[in-house]
Each structure stands twice: as structure tokens, then as C-alpha cells.
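Researcher: Batch entry, complex prediction.
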Amino acid sequence: MNIGDVAERAGLPAKTIRYYEDIGLVTPQRAANGYRRFREADLHKLTFLGRARSLGFSIEDCRALLALYEDDSRASADVKRIAEDHLARIDRKIAELSAMRETLSHLVRACSGDDKPDCPILHGLENG
Amino acid sequence: MNIGDVAERAGLPAKTIRYYEDIGLVTPQRAANGYRRFREADLHKLTFLGRARSLGFSIEDCRALLALYEDDSRASADVKRIAEDHLARIDRKIAELSAMRETLSHLVRACSGDDKPDCPILHGLENG
DNA sequence: CATAGGGATTCCAGTCAATGGAAGGTCAAG
DNA sequence: CTTGACCTTCCATTGACTGGAATCCCTATG
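Model: C-alpha cells for the complex:
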């Protein structure tokens, strides 16, 4: 497979796949003309990466998950720890956004949104 | 005020304040020795910026909000529109994270987390 | 007066995870 | 032979800072 084919099948931009090779997540072979040549195993890895990234795992998490994915003698506890840590990060992020949402929605609700300058939103930003 | 004082009072790192000057959000005066000299109005702006940033507004939103803040003939509708747009972005982000959380927590719950290689998390990443 | 410290200055590089674009090489079809 | 779709590498940019180096300024003490 050339990069275009694997990109389509993995659902990732070719550019991203080149980047993943750059940082050592995949190591496709090369054809005589210099083109990358991807095998089925590469496609599996890229699909795996796409899914992990879409769940918000960092590239470094993905690297670790991929290593475990390829390691037949892994302990599922190692995978679970990474996933739980990430879940905790997600929860913290949601909490942070919810707090923002809470504050901001109060301000928005208080603002008449007309052509007059008086504005509770600006007032809130000014005075905490 | 020197940058250290205004940094402390605004609750922002000095480095961030220099950056904000760099991108034109504040324009402190300069003393004869080259030090930045901040007035009370600068402090207000920086405090305003800190609050807006902590609510997740982008720098460009902050720039627009600051312009409205300084414009006595503003319409509160303009402020409200920016805030509502941002609120919608927050909601989308929360929804996205919640979806990740949902998927991931299912996988985590299904994983025994022991020393055996069998792992529903990896399986889920492999097969969608 | 020398010096030590704490603060200030500028500039450059790095973060994260790509993404955009330029300049050029390769290949299959018509 | 040319066209157009692919592919290649390399460099720059994104957002919002943050870290660090090298240097300068000010004040206080010995």
C-alpha cells in the first residue's frame, strides 16, 4: 500500500501518517522509488493510533499503548493504568470546563444584549 | 509599577505580561532605564485579561472583549455574542469529552487489570 | 568603591500534534 | 509527450505561553 491507500483505510491524513513515522510510531518500508510501502500490520497500527487519539490519549500514551499492543506478554494492568490516568485527566478537564460554563452562563443570562453599553459580562470580568 | 508588581497584583506571570505586550494587548510606558512602567489602567486591563483567559476565552476573543471594555459606546449585544459563541464552544468541548469518557470508562470497567495479557481496552482500540 | 542580590531587559528555542505550502520526483493514462 | 494524480522532503505556522541564556539596572552592605 502507498500512503494514500493506508490514509484512506485508516481514516488519517497522509500528512499525519508521515508525522507518525517521523516520531517513530510506525516504520513503513520503502519501495525502490522512495515511496513508503505499508503492510497490513502498519495499517492495523495506524487504525489503532487513530482510535486512541480520538479518545484523547496523548501521543506518548499512544506510544506506550502501542508497545503493549505489540507485546504478547503484557499485563492488562499496565494498559488499565494508562487508561485510568487518562480518564482522570478527562474528568478534571470536564470539571474545569463545567466551572467555566457555570460562571459564563450566569453572566450571559444577566446580559440584556441590546445596543446599550451597560454589560454584566464586562462587569464580571472587571470585578471577578 | 514595574512588571513584578503588576504581575503580583494581576496574578499573572511577568513572562505572560511581556507576551501580552508583544501581541499588543497592553502597551505600558517605558521608564528612562528601559523598564516597563505600568499604570493603574494597565493593571485593570491585565486583571480583566486574566479573568477572561481563566474563563477560556481565546486571546483573540480577549482582544475583542478588551476593545469593547474600553469603548464607552459599545453595545452589550456585541459582548454577549462573543460570550455566547464561547459558551457554545465550551458545550461542544464538554460533549466531546463526555463521549470520550463514556467510551473509555466502559473499556476500563471491562478490563480486569491483572497480570494477564488479555485486555478489552486494547481490543476496543483495535476493533473500534 | 566594590560587590552581591534581586529584579529587569532582549532574544531564541521548545511545547503539542499536527497542518499548510513550496519545490520537485514518479507513474499511469490518453 | 503531456497531463494530472500521486509521492517525496523540508520549512514555517498554529496557540498561548514557558524556559533559559546573556546582559543590564538598582540598591544595600562591607
